[in-house]
Amino acid sequence: MPCVPPGQVKNWYKVGDRINRDYVWIDDPYRYGLKRGGNYVRAGDYVYSIDSDTRKVLNLIGAVADILY
Q1: H-helix or E-strand spanning residue 38
Q2: pLDDT digits over 10-49, tens only?
Q3: How far apart are CA 58 and CA 31, in angstroms?
Q4: Residue 62: Cβ within 10 Å count
Q5: Are 21 and 43 in contact (CB under 8 A)?
Q6: Range of the domain at 52
Q7: What are the C-alpha distances in Å from 27 to residues 23, 30, 32, 34?
Q8: What is the mean pLDDT of residues 49-64?
Q9: Residue 44 lies in a domain
Q10: CA separation, residue 51 to residues 35, 37, 45, 48, 56 (Å)
């Protein structure tokens, strides 16, 4: 992790973590260059591929700024 001042470290989920709150489903992933048929959410500043039943993280896709804009 890079050296940053306390309180400015960005939190993200790791593979296997469960995302239970403060997330938004990405309804049309293909629009953002993501694979159709995948289940993607935005949580904080990151986009994740998740299992739709368990909401467990399968993969960290990347930062929102790099993917959605």
Answers
A1: none
A2: 568 999 999 999 999 999 888 888 888 889 999 988 999 9
A3: 20
A4: 14
A5: no
A6: 23-67
A7: 12, 9, 10, 11
A8: 92
A9: yes
A10: 14, 12, 19, 10, 5
